Amino acid sequence: MAKVHVKTGDQVYVLRGKDKARTGRVLRVLPASNRVVVEGVNVVTKHQKPRSQTQQGGIMTFEAPISAANVMLVCPSCQRPSKVARRINDEGAKVRVCKACNAEISVISKPKRS
Ligand SMILES: [Zn+2]
């Protein structure tokens, strides 16, 4: 299973599709299909029939998953869509690093104690 380069809560820039060149927050990551759900991106409408007393019918809109390959992480430090590198920092923790400005984006795993 391929590792998805973005995580829930990341700001991402959309490269392809009908919402090309938009940015949004990652709501969900689907590693099994290498897809992500991005807030406000790839919104589709669905005509839903009422299934119960509580569930209303009508036209529902929701974000459909898009391929993770079509988004780039927006670096929180330099605000640019960036490639992401994985690196071990000075403390021995595995981190995600912006390839444009070298800022640490987030910690993947804490250092192993020996
Ligand atoms: Zn950066």
Give an overview in words.
The chain has 114 residues and is mainly beta. The protein folds into two domains: 1-48 and 59-74, SH3 type barrels, CATH 2.30.30.30; 80-114, no CATH class. Helix content is 0%, strand content 46%. The protein has no helices and eleven strands. The strands form three sheets. A six-stranded antiparallel β-sheet has the order 6-3-2-1-7-8, with no helix packed on it. A three-stranded antiparallel β-sheet has the order 9-10-11, with no helix packed on it. Strand 7 (71-74) and strand 8 (81-82) form a beta hairpin. The protein is elongated and about 60 Å long. 16% of the residues are buried. Zinc ion (ZN) binds at residues 75, 77-78, 82, 98, 100-101, 103. Residues 75, 77-78, 82, 98, 100-101, 103 line the site of zinc ion.
Describe the strand arrangement of the main beta sheet, using strand numbers. Answer: 6-3-2-1-7-8
Give the helix/strand class: mainly beta
The percent of residues in helical segments reads under 10%
Q: How many strands appear in the DSSP assignment?
A: 11
What's the order of the H and E elements? EEEEEEEEEEE
Q: Give the name of the CATH architecture of the largest domain.
A: Roll
How far apart the termini lie comes to 29 Å
Show unreliable segments: none
Radius of gyration over alpha carbons? 18 Å
Record the SSE blueprint.
Layout: E1 11-14, E2 23-30, E3 35-38, E4 43-48, E5 58-63, E6 66-67, E7 71-74, E8 81-82, E9 84-88, E10 94-98, E11 104-109
Antiparallel strand pairs: 1-2, 1-7, 2-3, 3-6, 4-5, 7-8, 9-10, 10-11
The structure holds zinc ion.
Residues 75, 77-78, 82, 98, 100-101, 103 line the site of zinc ion (ZN).
